[in-house]
Structure formats: structure tokens, C-alpha cells
Amino acid sequence: MIKTDVCFEEMTQREIIQYMDETVKPEEGVIPAYIMGDPAIYDLEHKKVFLKTWLFLGHESEIQNNGDFITRDLAGYSVIISRGEDGVIRGFYNMCTHRGMKLCRADKGNKGRFTCPYHGFTFKNNGDLIGVPMQKDIYGGNLDYKSMGLHKVTIEIYKGLIFGTWNENPEPLSEFLGDFKWYIDLAVGRTEMEVIGPPQRFVINSQWKIGADNFVSDSYHTMVTHGSIAKLGMVPSAQYSKKGYQVNTENGHGCNVGMPNPLFAFPEELIPEYKANLSADQFEVLSNLKNLIGTIFPNLSFLVSHTEVKGQAVSNTTVRLWRPIAVDKMEVITWFLVEKNASEDWKRRSREAFILTFSPSGIFEQDDTEVFTDITAAATGQVPLSKNFNYNYTMGQHRVPVQDFAGPGTVYDDKFSEANSRNFYRYWLDLMKA
Ligand code: FES
Ligand code: FE
Predict the structure, then answer these.
(1) Fewer CB within 10 Å of terminal CB in the chain, N or C?
(2) Which of these, 185, 198, 237, 158, lies nearest to 63 by C-alpha position?
(3) Which residues form a coiled coil (predicted)?
(4) Which of 8, 60, 80, 74 is nearest to 37 (CA)?
(5) Does the C-beta of 98 come closer than 6 Å to ligand 1?
(6) CB of 132 closer than 6 angstroms to any ligand 1 atom
């Protein structure tokens, strides 16, 4: 029997974790509303999830040339990702080692060295301290430059996606992604991809998990939330999003593979490149792909969808970060990616398709943000916790995984399922308890 009138403010961290263990029951499809709206849970997941796992920072093509850099957020802390004169990509904590000033305040640029705005210490873009104003006079020439390089941030790259972590002893990125790489390859590794333009950013009053959850499993909402697109004739029917597979793998990752598609929505001249980069099975799926929507745990989602622009099927590819700012607020950051070797005309049409659908002004995006903010409001505060209000995540529990799909993971032959969310919250809970 679950207690009511629980108050986290009066409980120790150990008691909160124990309460979560009793009330969050992913396998039974029981997810309490309080995990979306309680500040104690938000603080705990910062420590247990965001300071422990790999988090997305950006795409290699954003820093193509030696000296290019971007500044990004890693679990609430600014970091500099820079390509050195030797072509190597490195990550640094964006803090001067003298007195802690934020070293670089630009979003991106090209610099061989960074000079601190406070006292003028200068660091090379490989992190080395190389200049201190008047050092001979004021430090007697004794300042130990070697020990004062920028603090390094652990980064690893998979198919152009740059991830970083604060974990001192992380599982290698490749193992963390595991079997899910098969699907990530389809989304962003099918050929050389490049990011066009800076990422688009907007802030909404939504808890971050609602976005991650929506992309990991929720194809079901499409027929209602986005029902207007069927009415407008942009998709054949409101149940358009049901056909295909729902797949999850270890570590909370999951995606929805929309198939079949009689139209090939990728540049045909790149077929030899796709075949060179993908296995025969992966290419077969790509050839029949209608859309691919998923989440890499915890908060990076991706989307490959196709839209008809001026009578022609055009795919567009995006990755998006649900960056938590507060328990009830997140920044949504969306990168538009396109095949680097596609024609300029293809790139333009693909971008147009993105703007029309999932950019901040796109028809899908606006539908979703309305829902996310209302869920957040209803989950916030003491009432959902003390009254023990739960969400129902039992959809698809009666289904058994299929064996005839070529890709790895636990695969269901229907996208209308909440199996991926159950898998996502199981891993989330395991980390929260660790
Ligand atoms: Fe950067 Fe002093 S804080 S030079
Ligand atoms: Fe949606």
C-alpha cells in the first residue's frame, strides 16, 4: 500500500530513493507524475544521471577547420570544444585556471588561443597556458605554467556526434550506445553528414523527460496531436504513424522505425555511398524508411522524416537536445543535418522540409510544445506527489517481440506501444538508485 501525503522536503535522500523504488514501476507500466515535477527528483537526477552519463555536445562538422571552436553546456557547465592546430578535437571546462573567469563567451568561432577577459592569461587551443601578463615581474618568473592548463573534459565521438561526460570512469561511448548504433548509423552515419547553420534554440516551460519520452516511444500521439496534418492531406491517414517497428536496446535507448515507404526519400545519386557505409540489412531498411524517431538516453533525440515538397519526397534529418534548465523548464536545441555530398538543390529542399515540420515554427513542433507544457504544469508541486497520481504506460504489454526484423534489440511489430518508455524509465530508475 503506497503512502499518501508524502513530503520529500522532510525526507533524506536515501528515503526519497527508497520511495521511488516502491512507486516507479516501469515493467508494470506505472510511472508517477511526481518524477516530472518534483524539484528533489530533478536535483537527484542531475547528480545521478547528468553527471554520470554521456551527453551530446555537438557535431564534428560544426568545427571542421583547425582552430574552430564551439561552447556548449555539459550538465549545466560551459565547456569549450575546440579543434587544435593538429586537427584533434578536445574539450575543456570553460573556466580560467587563474581565478575562475569564464574564458570564452562566444558561441562559436575560430581561435588559436583564448585570452581571459579578467587578467589576460592566454591559453592555446590545446589547453596549455602560454602567456601571463608581466609574469617575470609579478611572479618572479616562478609561475608553474604546466600545472595551470585548462581542465580537460572527457569527450568521445561516434559518427560525427560529439559526446562529453563528467564521469571520471565512464563506460566507453561505443559500449554505452551498444546495439543502438545500428539505428544511429541509419540516422546520422549513412554517409558523411554536415550540420547546416547554427542549431536552433528555444526555451519552453516543460520538464526535459517529456520530450525524451515522446521521441523514444510515442508514435500514438501523432494521430491526435498532429491530426491536422492528416486533415491537410500532408500524410495519407491519421494512422500513418502506426506501421513499422518499435525497438529498444540496453541503457534506455529506443526508436521507432516507420516502414514501409514506396518512395525513396534520399538523394539517389548517393546510393553507392549509403551502400558503402551501411550493411546490406541497414540499406534495405533505409530504402523502405518512412521515418525514424528515437532517443539516445538520456536527452538526445533524432528524427529522420520525409515530407513532400513541391510534389517530391524529401527526407530531413535532425538531432535535438532536451537540455534541462529547471524542473519545469528546458531549452530545445535542434541541429539540422544533411548529406554533405548531396546537391545544393537537395540540401535546400531538405532544409525547407525541416522548417515546415520540426523547426520552432514548424507545424509538428508547435503542436508538441503545447502538450509538453501542460503535462509539466499538471505534474508540478505537492499535489501529484502526495495524492500519488500515476501515468499509465501499459500500452503494448500484450505483444511479444518479433524475430524477423534485421536490426538488433527488442523489436515489436507495431509502433503504437509504450515498451520503449518502460525500457527508458527502467534504466533511469537504475541510475537514480545507483
Ligand atoms: Fe583569468 Fe585572472 S581569472 S586571468
Ligand atoms: Fe509530436
Answers:
(1) N
(2) 198
(3) none
(4) 8
(5) yes
(6) no
pLDDT in tens, 47-103: 999 999 999 999 999 999 999 999 999 999 999 999 999 999 999 999 999 999 999
* pLDDT recorded at residue 366: 83
Q: What is the CATH number of domain 178-433?
A: 3.90.380.10
| Dihedral pair phi/psi, residue 165, rounded to 5° | -150, 150
Residue 114 near ligand 1, beta carbon < 6 Å: no
Whether residue 208 contacts residue 299, with contact meaning beta carbons closer than 8 Å, is answered with yes
Written as nine digits, the cell of 81 is: 570544444
Mutation test residue for ligand 1: of 99, 105, 115, 150, the one with most atoms within 8 Å of CB: 99
Average pLDDT value for the chain? 95
**Kind and range of the H or E element at 114?**
strand 113-115
319, 56 Cβ separation under 8 angstroms? yes
Q: Of the candidates 404, 425, 422, 424, which has an alpha carbon nearest to the alpha carbon of residue 413?
A: 404
Question: What's the pLDDT at 2?
Answer: 59
| Domains in the chain: boundaries | 55-169, 178-433
- Ligand 1 atom closest to the Cα of residue 121 is 4
Q: How confident is the model over 114-149, as pLDDT tens digits? A: 999 999 999 999 999 999 999 999 999 999 999 999
Evaluate whether 341 touches 192 at the Cβ level (below 8 Å): yes
CA atoms within 13 A on the CB side of 95: 10
Superfamily, domain 55-169: Rieske [2Fe-2S] iron-sulphur domain (2.102.10.10)
Q: Is residue 152 within 8 Å of 92, Cβ to Cβ? A: yes
Peptide linkage before 360 cis (omega within 30 of 0): no
* C-beta 145 within 6 A of ligand 1: no
For the Cβ of 138 lying below 6 angstroms from any atom of ligand 1, the answer is no
Nearest ligand to residue 221 Cα? 2
Per-residue pLDDT band for 231 (boundaries 50, 70, 90) equals confident
Is 101's C-beta closer than 6 angstroms to any atom of ligand 1? Answer: yes
At 3 the pLDDT is 64
Name which residue sits closest to atom 3 of ligand 1, judged by CA.
99
**How do 77-83 and 89-93 pair as beta strands?**
antiparallel
